[in-house]
Amino acid sequence: LFVPGPLAAGAQLSLEGGQAHYLAKVMRAKPGDAVVLCDDITGEWAAAVVEAGKRDVLLNVRERLRIREAVPDLWLCAALVKKPAFDLVLEKATELGVARVQPVLTRRCVADKLNDERARAILTEAAEQCARTALPALVAPARLDTLLAHWPEARTLFFADEQGGAPAAAEFAANPGPAALLVGPEGGFDDGERAAIRAHPRARAITLGPRILRAETATIAAAALWMGSAGD
Ligand code: SAM
């Protein structure tokens, strides 16, 4: 479970709400039962249940199991697509090891708002499921033009373009280092946006094959290929 940190050996921690319910009611935790905690600061810790009540569960933090991992330096700049698809993107990006999720607002975006609390809950649950010791950062949605105007010099922007580009795996291997994937919304980028992205000095257009993939499929496929190429 991800809990507020920093955790330390010997500390006592009281969990409430959903986490207490999960431990006490779903897992039927009893005093002495082992729980693994993460704080997204120091890493992963072994803890034991001291008391499991109706409203809260008291835990005793024992020893550190792993220090917080070094996350592969990949940002995901994914156009904000409709809810079930973006939920999937958040979950799979976390499982694949993405460091940061940047929702992007483009001209053809149907969705224009992200429920931050819900999005963070999906990221946290996915991180717990896949035993990540670091949560992906989630930043506020940004307009495509703003993002391009403030793009960091040292980071390659791989532009997933269904109209063609260099084969993704080869392009990732040829351009190691800090990277980001840019994927469009349900209706794709419009011509003006595509021209602006392609003209950007840090952008490199990639193809994921001759078929037009759903935005969420393209995102997951590109992230998996990048992780495979980076060896992470
Ligand atoms: N209409 C479908 C949907 O509802 O998801 C397809 C949308 S596709 C145009 C969305 C984005 O996925 C594109 O802007 C592009 O970034 C990416 N994409 C889809 N197929 C791709 C491919 N074969 N190669 C590279 N990128 C691709």
TrEMBL record:
Q: What GO molecular function annotation could you give as one example from this UniProt entry? A: rRNA (uridine-N3-)-methyltransferase activity
**Quick check: keyword rRNA processing in the entry?**
yes
Q: In this protein, which residues make up the domain named Ribosomal RNA small subunit methyltransferase E PUA-like?
A: 15-60
| Key words of the record | Cytoplasm, Methyltransferase, rRNA processing, S-adenosyl-L-methionine, Transferase
Q: Spell out where the chain crosses the membrane.
A: none
**Database matches in InterPro entries:** Alpha/beta_knot_MTases, PUA-like_sf, RsmE, RsmE_MTase_dom, RsmE_PUA-like, tRNA_m1G_MTases_N
Is Cytoplasm there in the keyword field?
yes
- Identify the residues that the record assigns to the Ribosomal RNA small subunit methyltransferase E methyltransferase domain, covering every copy: 73-226
**What's an example GO cellular component term for this entry?**
cytoplasm
Provide the E.C. number(s) assigned to this enzyme: 2.1.1.193
UniProt-listed NCBIfam families: PRK11713.3-5, RsmE family RNA methyltransferase
**Member of which family?**
Belongs to the RNA methyltransferase RsmE family.
- Identify this protein by name: Ribosomal RNA small subunit methyltransferase E
Origin organism is: Novosphingobium colocasiae
